[in-house]
Amino acid sequence: MSEFPSTTWRPAAVVSRPRHRWVSEANIVTAVFLALYVTAATVMVFHFDFIMEDALARVSNAEYVLFSRQPKLSAVGFVWTPLPSLSYLPFLWLKTLWPDLVTRGYLANLGSAVAMAASVRVLGGILVDLRVRRPARLALIVVFGLQPLIVFYAMNGMTEALLIVFVLLATRRLLRWLEHRDPQHLVAAGLALALGYLARYEVAAVGVAAVVFVFGASWWRSSLVGRGRRHVAVADAALVGLPVFTAFVLWAAASWIIVGHPFEQFSSQYGNSALIANAGGAGPGAALTFVPTQWLIVAPLLLPAAAGVLIRSVRQRDLRPLVPLFLLGAVPLFEAVAYLSGSLFGFLRYQIALIPLFALLVGFLLAPRFQSEPSTAPAGPTRRRGPRRLLLDPRVRAVARRPQRARPASSGPLVVAAGAATAAVLMLSSSISTGWVSLTKPSLASQEYALLRPMMSDLVGRPVPTMLSSAWVADRLVARDVDAMHLPVGSVLLDSASGFAVIAASRQPQHFVVTSDTDFHGAVTDPIGHHIQYMLISDRPRQIDEVGRVWTEKFTSQPPVPWVSLATRFNELPGSVHQWSLWKVDLAYKP
Amino acid sequence: MTADRARHPAVDEQRPDRARIADVDQRTDRLHIVPAGQRPAPVTWTAPAVAMRDWDEHRRTRYSTDGLADSHPLLSARPRGTRRTAFAATGAALVVLAGLLALVPVATLVVFIALMTLSYTAVLAQRLLLMRRAAASTVGVHVSDEEARAFPASELPVYTVLVPAYQEPEVIARVMKFVDDLEYPRHKLDVKLLLEADDAETIAAVRAVPALDHLSVVLVPPSTPRTKPKACNYGLTMARGELLTIYDAEDRPEPLQLRRAVVAFGRASEDTVCLQARLSYHNAHQNLLTRWFTNEYDIWFTWLLPGLVASGAPIPLGGTSNHLRTRVLLEVGGWDPHNVTEDADLGVRFARFGYAVGVLDSVTYEEANSDFVNWVKQRSRWYKGYLKTWLVHMRHPRTLRRELGTKGFVNFTLFVAGTPLLAVLNPLFWGLSMLWWLAKPPLLAELFPAPVYHLGMACWLLGGFGLLYGSLANARSAGRAELFASLLLLPAYWVMMSIAATKAVVQLVLQPSYWEKTTHGLDVTHADPAPASTSASAHPVGT
What we know:
The structure holds 2 protein chains of 2 kinds. By secondary structure, chain A is mainly α.
């Protein structure tokens, strides 16, 4: 079949598929940090028995989906973002083999370790894209990965790691979009932000920032005029913003349909606002300097680094540094506004996004001069033909996917070493200040101080000052006792918003009537009619407990309610987060 | 182009040595254009169709109506057995279904819904995978302008261009326009305008035009089935070219397309026998419908077909601008005149014969259907043809699986049968969803066990969003950002697809071979000012 002379040029020769190599820098870095974080998590959970409340609650919520009395997807709840709990679902079956995965919430710790190791990997990938030399790049990501706050939120099962990895993924794609102009990157960034929103509500703010940035950048770089220019800028902004907007709408709609409020997190009695009000939280009168102080602790050199990068980017007309400033910067800004308006606690962890932001700014400082891709811009006003042709050209598409990275001009080993040292020193400033504050200043880093200090004390051989390891002792005792009674299904009533640890510790979660059950409210108002044998009521007034809200006063006032009697009290347990009263219902009672 | 333009008879009135179309070659019934002064350079019959050179009209007609069915009866949609058997089979299936519904109604419905939900999931997953594959690979053969022009003219093969038309008096002007635009040596072009012999109006219009060396008119004798593939087969028996392509009269192929195809064939693997050029629409902005349609076509030819190529699956070809090696086309039996999407069928047949189809990076602009009723007719013909193609090739599923491989078999089924079937089912599931939101009947909860419900929900939400978002992303990457607003209304287009699909399924049972005519020339306000497109016409040419 050689009617036509075949030319020597073949597409396959130009675009050779990248070989997948197992032993690569990215894989090694990921594996090392994953091992480190998993080890730290294991020590935290099994040696110290330190379990973060939110982490345990998320695992417990996932458990309701599969193992509660009424297993259903909506049992995952609408106060928390759904993605963490949903991601635990496939692994919950392992509970029968290894109960600690659920009873100690270890699944959440594994999840955060994986997410943080992935964050380190993505950060490294961005630095590769920025053409930062390997020594400086490795110095930067190693110090970043060992930053105290990063290590802590990698091992403790919270969702900070998911926040970082999704925002970093979006950052990476937007940087590539700036460089190669392929709208595929906008799609990828948009999807990363949508997943990020389902992991952390703050990502809504990141989405807004991304939309604003992309619209501006697209407009600024466009060579078109008039309507065409507007169309393209709107389209680009919509591509990056639509997924997160859809996630926002769908999640709100699901919440509205199933529990009656579109924004449980903010409006319900289980949400953050209510928790803060209960805790007598910050409120609008909080000190204006509080959050900026936390920023300084997390990244002391952030402002000089940002100033340096911005000056350079203005000189080189380089938009790229704005990407992390917009995306990662949106998180602490959002938290600050929420804190000042009284809907968020002033936790140090809310500033964690500044750490990858600072690392990226250092990366920009060390990166060689920005060189935009030659001639990928549509030429002239032929708006239809230009970009279309370029996108159809497989070679351009291939280049867009795998940038030809020009090696930076060679320089002596001294310069290279200096770059690596600079990266390490700059990044260490953040580690030192954060570490110091976490161990010494509970007012600025309450959660970190509470857990990191005792752990560090133990590791250096000093006595552990608090009784953190007994945080869940009351819940475990309740679970043990209830399990031992061999009750029928659905005979113990509790509000899972505060009783999650009891259910997590129980071997028979279907014994409990929980908040997500359709008959929960009926059972609260009429326990006898719903065959409730025991009612578990929190003795801590600040706990969110619907059962307690309705019955505590009636049970403890005179004359006593005739159909209940106090079975056991799980109080006076030092260090315990919860204290419980187990009330026995007299099912035979006839008024 | 100026040199070529000077040779154009319509422009160049100063060439008295050219005769009007007059000489009718009785043997082939072909209106051959013969210059008055001298004979044209002798044609060297190196073309694959040389064996058919001496065929008479009857033989050509028989080949064009039944050639495939005679040589490969199992591969043709020509009815085998009577309609009664088809009706009996359909009736029996319905009776069994009704029986099951009467005996175990809930179980039957649950199984049905579960199967359909799985199909939805599979089709959606396939679409996403195809797009991903297309994005991650470089299957489209790209030939730059320089490379296309640099190919020595002396080495270019003779290229046959078939242009079937029916009741389109203006066709000759249109054809001459695009042929004139083609950058290809005139003496190596073999353009054949295929007209129905009883289409007096069009023939009269053609007779009034001066002669051209490279353009001949072929009169296809009346015979059934009266379809575009039948006419193309007739033209095929006279093809002089080693390569061959089809355009519709109103197509605007990119001028270098033939040269690009030649270079691309040289570069492609040995077994590549067909290159499908990209089709797009020149009247995207005419109305909402053409905007939707344009975006759909862009997705089809930019993502889905390249994705199928990358997966090694059979490619349902587009109606025009598929560039073929004539020899292989003859070998596989030409087009199936009994199918209503002969293009899709041919792609599958190539795959079954072990040949590959590639995608050529070159665009032909067509006219998007701008009228609702007309669109439904056209789309229902496509869906019917797809279903028919699937039924024909599934006559022996095991053989098909062996020939296509498991992956190709699954891809073929999901793509060719899945597309119309799910379009039919969409209204049912939309209706059930509405019913659930409005009334929450307990029976419905019974029909959707939790896993099915969640899968269906995920399909509905993620699939719906994915399709909409994918369309937007495609509009942006195709350089049509201005289509964004209209694409937000895309769900209305899905409703239209369902209407067409329902019509297709009904027609598949009642009128399996009926060819829905598509009216062209509705783009008068948006077409370029050539007089060619000023009158509406109906012809059996599918686009």
